[in-house]
C-alpha cells in the first residue's frame, strides 16, 4: 500500500496535518516507540502527543488489515471469473471493512444454502423471471423447471424464492438501510432464563431480568453486565429494530408490482429479513456494541491505571510496611531508603490474640532501631484498626503514616518475581514489602504486577483481552517514560518498559550493572551486550544517572542534543553545570540562534524547561490522610453526614470512595459535581482525598450512596 493513501485516509479521519501523519507513520515503521516520537521528534510530527500518535498507529494497523483483506477478496472473485473493471475499482476505493464485506458477500464461498441448492437444480432463471415481476402466471412459468428433485411448480417457485431471499440479503443498499434503522432505533432486550430466575447466582443480575433500552443509549457497564449474565446462562439478550418498518423498507426496494410475482417477491423479502438479514445485522450490532463497550471499559481501566502508577511517591525514606490482620496478626517489615528488606516480624495487637502492649513495645523498638520515617499500612482487613493502634503509639521522632492500597500484593507475593527477590521469605513477608515499597515509589513497585490484578478496572475479564493487554502495556510504558528511570537502581521489570528496551535488554543492563558497578554515564549503555545504536537512541533520554559526571545524564535532554546545550554554555561563557544553576544566564539565551534543519523551537523549548529543573519528577507530592475517627462501620453512618474519603476506583458511571467502614461508597456520576459531568476522570483522580456527603445507606446489601455536590475539595 502506498504511504500517501494511508496518510490521506488517517489525516482526514483524525483531522491532523498530512505531513505530520506521514512522518509519524515512517517513524513507527522504523521501530520508534510512541513515547520517543512524542518527546524527541516533535518537529517531524508537528507536535503530536502520545494519544494522537497511538491513534495514528491503531488506524494504520486497521487500514493495513483492510488492505490485506482486499487481496483475498480480489483473488477469490478473479478466480471465479466474475471480476470486472468497475468491481475492481469499487474494491480498490473501499477502506471500510464492513463495506468491503458487503461488496464481497455475493461472491464469498458459502456452505450449501437453500439458495445454492436451488441454483444447482437450475432454478436461477425462474428467480429472475419472478424478480422482474412481468409474468402474469408464475405457476405456468415454473412448470418449465419441473425436473429431477423438483416435483411440481410449487417446489420450483419455493426454490426460486430461496434464491430471491439470498439475493435480497446480499444487496448492499438493503443492508445499509437496515444498519441505519438499527443505528437509530435498535433496542437491546434482556430477559431472565426462567429456570435460573430464583437461583442465588442470578440475584446480581436482577436489574436485567426484564430490561430494555435503546442500544445507542446503553452504557458500557450495563451492556457488559448483561453480556456476562448471558455468558453465565442466566440472561437471554437480543437486539432488534422495528420489524414491520424494516420489512416495509425492503419491500419498497424489491416489490414493483401488485400481481402474483410481486406477491411472491414480497414473501421472499419477508423470509430474507427474518431468516437471513435480521440475524446477520443483529450479530453485527451485537459485535459493534460489545466492541464499543470494551473500548470504553478499557479506556476507564487505562486511565485508572495511569493515575495509580503516577500516584505521589514518598521517595527514598526508611519505611515500615504493615500488612494488617486480626487472627493471623500484622506482618511488619522494615525497609531501608532503597527499599531493601532489613527486618521482619509479626505483631498481634487485635482480637482474638490481643497482645496490644507487647505489640506496642515491638513497634516502638523497631522504629527506634531502624530509624523509621514513615509507615505504609495496607488498606485490607484490619487496616482501620491497625492505623488507629499505630497512631496511639509514641516515638522519639516524627513518623508519618499512610494507608496504601494492597490490591495485587498477594498476586505479587506468590509470583516468580517475588520468589526471585526474596527466595528465603514467605508470601506474607513479600506482601508487606510490596506495601512498603508502594509508598516509596508506586510506579517502580506496581510494574511488577499484572495490571489486571491491581483492582482498578471495570469488567476487565469480560472485555477483549488482547486489546486490554495492549492498552495497559502502552499505559505502563507511557507512565514509566514520562517519569524517567534511575539507571542504577531500577529493577529489571521497570527497565523493561523503558522505550526501546524490553525484557532481554533490561536483563542485560541489570547484569552489566552487577558485574561492572553503577553506570557513570549514559554513553556506557553502548557497552551493554546487544544494546545497539537504535535501542540506545530510543532509551537514552528516559534513563537518569543522578550522580553522573555530565549533569545532562540526569535530565530528559537526549544525548543527541548535548552539543546544543554545550554550545549554549560556551556562548554564555560557562560550563553546562553552571548554566543549569544560573537562571540569569539561561534567560539571556536567544533560542532562534540554535535552530537547525533538524532541531526546531519545540525541542529547544523542551531543553530549556529541562535545564530549569533537570530530572524533576512530574508526580505530585504525597499527602497524609485520616478517616473520621468516629466512623468505623456502616452502622455509624447516617444520611447527611459529611466525611473525608479516598477515591479507590473510577468507572464511567461514577467513583468509589473509601470512607473507612470496610465497604466503599459510590458517588454516582450525577453526584460528582454541581455541573454536568460527562467523564468522571475529569473531576476526580484515583487516590484523591475528597469530602463526601452520605445520601443513602442500604445496610442489608452494604451499599452506600455518596455525593460530592456542594462540597469543597
Question: What features would you describe in this structure?
Answer:
The protein has 713 residues and is α/β, with parallel strands linked by helices. Among the domains are: 3-107, Orthogonal Bundle (Arc Repressor Mutant, subunit A), CATH 1.10.10; 319-440, YqgF/RNase H-like domain (Nucleotidyltransferase, domain 5); 480-612, DNA polymerase, domain 1, CATH 1.10.150; 634-707, Nucleic acid-binding proteins (OB fold (Dihydrolipoamide Acetyltransferase, E2P)). 48% of the residues lie in helices and 12% in strands. The strands form four sheets. It has a five-stranded mixed β-sheet with strand order 6-5-4-7-8, sandwiched between helices. Strand 4 and strand 5 (330-335) form a beta hairpin. Helix 1 crosses helix 5, helix 9 crosses helix 11 (153-169) and helix 12 (172-185) crosses helix 15. The relative contact order is 0.07. Residues 640-709 form the S1 motif domain.
Outline:
With 713 residues, this protein is α/β, with parallel strands linked by helices. The protein has 29 helices and 15 strands.
Question: Main traits of this protein?
Answer:
five-stranded mixed beta sheet; Nucleotidyltransferase, domain 5; DNA polymerase, domain 1; 15 strands; five-stranded mixed barrel; globular; Arc Repressor Mutant, subunit A; Ribos_protein_bS1-like; alpha/beta; 713 residues; 48% helix; 29 helices; RNaseH-like_sf; Tex-like_central_region
Which residues form runs of ≥5 with pLDDT under 50?
Answer: none
Which CATH C-level class of the domain at 480-612 is it? Mainly Alpha
Distance between the termini: 53 Å
Level-2 CATH architecture of the domain at 480-612: Orthogonal Bundle
What best-fitting shape do the alpha-carbon axes yield? globular
**CATH homology superfamily name of the domain at 480-612:** Tex RuvX-like domain-like
Level of helix content? 40-55%
Report the biggest beta sheet as strand number plus sense, adding barrel if it closes.
Answer: 5 strands, mixed
Order of strands in the sheet with most strands: 6-5-4-7-8
Which structural class do you get from the secondary structure elements? alpha/beta
Radius of gyration equals 33 Å
Whole-number average pLDDT? Answer: 93
Amino acid at each position: 500500500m502506498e504511504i500517501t493513501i494511508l496518510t490521506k485516509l488517517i489525516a482526514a479521519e483524525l483531522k491532523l496535518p498530512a505531513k505530520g501523519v506521514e512522518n509519524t507513520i515512517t517513524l513507527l515503521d522504523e521501530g520508534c516507540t510512541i513515547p520517543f516520537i512524542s518527546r524527541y521528534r516533535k518537529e517531524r510530527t508537528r507536535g503530536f502527543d502520545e494519544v494522537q500518535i497511538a491513534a495514528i498507529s491503531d488506524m494504520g494497523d486497521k487500514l493495513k488489515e483492510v488492505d490485506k483483506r482486499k487481496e483475498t477478496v480480489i483473488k477469490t472473485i478473479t478466480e471465479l471469473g466474475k471480476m470486472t473493471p468497475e468491481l475492481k475499482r469499487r474494491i480498490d476505493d473501499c477502506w471500510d471493512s464492513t463495506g468491503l464485506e458487503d461488496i464481497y458477500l455475493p461472491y464469498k464461498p458459502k456452505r450449501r444454502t437453500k439458495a445454492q441448492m436451488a441454483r444447482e437444480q437450475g432454478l436461477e432463471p425462474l428467480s429472475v423471471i419472478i424478480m422482474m415481476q412481468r409474468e402474469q402466471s408464475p405457476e405456468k412459468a415454473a412448470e418449465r423447471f419441473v425436473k429431477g428433485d423438483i416435483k411440481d411448480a410449487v417446489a420450483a417457485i419455493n426454490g426460486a424464492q430461496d434464491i430471491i431471499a439470498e439475493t435480497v440479503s446480499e444487496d448492499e443498499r438493503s443492508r445499509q438501510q437496515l444498519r441505519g434503522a438499527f443505528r437509530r432505533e435498535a433496542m437491546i432486550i434482556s430477559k431472565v432464563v426462567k429456570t435460573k430466575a430464583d437461583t442465588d447466582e442470578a440475584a446480581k443480575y436482577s436489574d436485567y431480568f426484564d430490561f430494555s433500552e435503546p442500544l445507542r443509549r446503553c452504557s458500557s457497564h450495563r451492556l457488559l453486565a448483561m453480556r456476562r449474565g448471558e455468558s453465565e446462562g442466566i440472561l437471554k439478550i437480543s437486539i432488534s429494530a422495528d420489524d414491520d418498518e424494516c420489512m416495509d423498507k425492503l419491500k419498497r426496494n424489491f416489490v414493483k408490482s401488485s400481481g402474483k410475482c410481486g406477491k411472491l417477491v414480497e414473501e421472499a423479502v419477508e423470509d430474507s429479513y427474518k431468516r437471513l438479514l435480521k440475524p446477520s445485522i443483529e450479530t453485527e450490532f451485537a459485535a459493534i456494541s460489545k466492541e464499543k463497550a470494551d473500548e470504553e471499559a478499557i479506556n476507564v481501566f487505562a486511565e485508572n491505571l495511569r493515575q495509580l502508577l503516577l500516584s505521589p511517591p514518598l521517595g527514598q525514606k526508611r519505611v515500615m510496611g504493615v500488612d494488617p490482620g486480626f487472627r493471623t496478626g500484622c506482618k511488619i517489615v522494615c525497609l531501608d531508603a532503597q527499599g531493601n528488606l532489613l527486618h521482619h516480624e509479626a505483631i498481634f495487637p487485635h482480637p482474638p490474640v490481643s497482645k496490644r502492649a507487647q505489640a506496642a513495645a515491638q513497634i516502638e523498638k523497631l522504629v527506634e532501631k531502624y530509624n523509621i520515617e514513615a509507615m505504609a499500612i495496607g488498606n485490607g482487613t484490619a487496616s482501620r484498626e491497625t492505623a488507629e493502634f499505630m497512631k496511639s503509639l509514641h516515638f522519639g521522632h516524627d513518623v508519618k503514616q499512610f494507608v496504601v492500597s494492597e490490591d495485587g500484593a498477594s498476586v505479587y507475593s506468590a509470583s516468580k518475581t517475588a520468589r526471585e527477590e526474596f527466595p528465603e521469605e514467605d508470601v506474607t513477608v513479600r506482601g508487606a514489602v510490596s506495601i512498603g515499597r508502594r509508598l516509596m515509589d508506586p510506579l517502580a513497585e506496581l510494574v511488577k504486577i499484572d495490571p489486571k490484578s491491581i483492582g482498578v478496572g471495570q469488567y476487565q475479564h469480560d472485555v477483549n483481552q488482547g486489546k486490554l493487554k495492549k492498552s495497559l502495556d502502552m499505559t505502563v510504558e507511557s507512565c514509566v517514560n514520562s517519569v524517567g528511570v534511575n539507571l542504577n537502581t531500577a529493577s529489571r521489570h521497570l527497565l523493561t518498559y523503558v522505550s526501546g528496551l524490553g525484557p532481554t535488554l533490561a536483563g542485560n543492563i541489570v547484569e552489566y550493572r552487577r558485574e561492572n558497578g553503577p553506570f557513570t554515564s549514559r554513553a556506557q549503555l553502548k557497552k551493554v551486550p546487544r544494546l545497539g545504536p537504535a535501542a540506545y537512541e530510543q532509551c537514552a533520554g528516559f534513563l537518569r544517572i543522578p550522580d553522573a559526571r555530565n549533569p545532562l545524564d540526569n535530565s530528559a535532554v537526549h544525548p543527541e542534543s548535548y552539543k546544543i546545550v554545550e554550545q549554549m554554555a560556551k556562548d554564555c561563557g560557562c560550563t553546562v553545570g553552571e548554566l543549569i544553576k544560573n537562571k540569569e544566564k539561561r534567560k539571556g539565551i536567544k533560542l532562534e540562534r540554535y535552530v537547525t534543519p533538524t532541531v526546531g523551537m519545540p525541542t529547544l523549548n523542551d531543553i530549556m524547561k529541562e535545564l530549569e529543573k533537570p530530572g524533576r519528577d512530574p508526580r505530585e507530592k504525597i499527602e497524609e490522610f485520616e478517616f473520621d475517627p468516629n466512623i468505623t462501620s456502616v452502622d455509624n453512618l447516617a444520611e447527611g453526614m459529611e466525611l473525608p474519603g479516598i477515591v479507590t476506583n473510577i468507572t464511567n458511571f461514577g467513583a468509589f470512595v473509601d470512607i473507612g467502614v470496610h465497604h466503599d461508597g459510590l458517588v454516582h456520576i450525577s453526584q460528582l459535581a454541581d455541573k454536568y459531568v460527562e467523564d468522571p476522570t475529569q473531576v476526580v483522580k484515583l487516590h484523591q482525598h475528597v469530602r463526601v456527603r452520605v445520601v443513602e445507606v442500604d445496610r442489608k446489601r452494604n451499599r452506600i450512596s455518596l455525593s460530592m455536590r456542594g462540597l469543597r475539595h
